[in-house]
Write a structure and sequence with these properties.
Layout lengths: L1 H5 L1 E2 H7 L5 H9 L3 E3 L2 E2 L6 E2 L5 E3 L2 E2 L8 E6 L28 E3 L7 E7 L2 H8 L7 E8 L4 H9 L1 E3 L2 E3 L3 E8 L2 E8 L6 H8 L4 E9 L2 E2 L8 E3 L2 H7 L6
Helix pairs in contact: 2-3
Length: 244
């Protein structure tokens, strides 16, 4: 009740407004890039009310809009970042111009493709990325060579690779095409390059990786590069507590 009366913390406000994730918003505050009512914001515990004016890098931030979510079919060859220091093409440079500012729910690396969820609400992105949300991420993975069933058993038991512990991964053989094998792979954690790292450790180099589902949301027949908004009613049904 007290927080409702005072508004919401500024990092959460910036996250919901689609400016950045809550963690990145906190970093922006500490870097002196955020002002409220013409005064610098010095820590993320500041509360924002409905009449307060928040400015980031000299630009006013509008009050957060209703939470929205989009499905996007990411092609390979794009990095999931707003600005790449190496100058590589990014996902956000290739989105339709009429799309509002969005952030991704998790990432797909440069050579990975398939379903990438986009939202205008950083708090929602963070919620859906947490392993505690329990959403299964499903992939089709092509590896070079044949696959010994014992290796799939190791995946199901969880593995430690280069000192990093990866949780259980479900994998089954879909088809064998000459020197390649297609696998169906499911996991809940989604650590950085998780599938590629565990497959490399099993001497099964990944030659193609396509995400086909993230929780209840499917890639379906979405064409490469296409974006489609998730119906608001469906979003509220799939994300309890989201509200209107």
């Amino acid at each position: 009740m007290v927080e409702e009366q005072r508004g919401e913390r500024i990092a959460k406000f910036l996250s919901r407004a689609g400016v950045a994730s809550r963690r990145d918003a906190e970093a922006m505050i500490l870097a002196g890039r955020v002002r409220m009512n013409n005064a610098p914001v010095e820590h993320p515990a500041v509360f924002v009310g409905p009449t307060d004016i928040v400015v980031v890098d000299g630009k006013a931030v509008a009050q957060p809009e209703r939470t929205r979510l989009w499905r996007y079919h990411k092609p390979d060859g794009l990095v999931t970042t707003h600005k790449d220091p190496e100058g590589r093409p990014t996902v956000f440079e290739h989105l339709p111009k009429d799309l509002p500012r969005v952030i991704s729910v998790g990432r797909l690396d440069l050579t990975s493709e398939g379903l990438l969820l986009l939202t205008n609400d950083g708090a929602l992105a963070r919620q859906l990325e947490l392993p505690s949300t329990g959403w299964l991420r499903r992939y089709r993975v092509r590896v070079h060579g044949g696959v010994d069933p014992k290796k799939l058993t190791r995946l199901a038991e969880g593995m430690v690779v280069d000192g990093v512990k990866f949780g259980p991964i479900e994998a089954s053989v879909d088809s064998v095409q000459r020197a390649n094998t297609w696998l169906s792979v499911s996991l809940r954690e989604g650590k950085n390059r998780e599938i590629r790292r565990v497959m490399d450790a099993l001497l099964l180099p990944v030659t193609r990786l396509i995400r086909v589902a993230y929780g209840p949301f499917q890639l379906g027949l979405l064409a490469k590069g296409e974006v489609e908004e998730v119906n608001g009613k469906i979003l509220r049904e799939q994300v309890p507590g989201l509200g209107k």
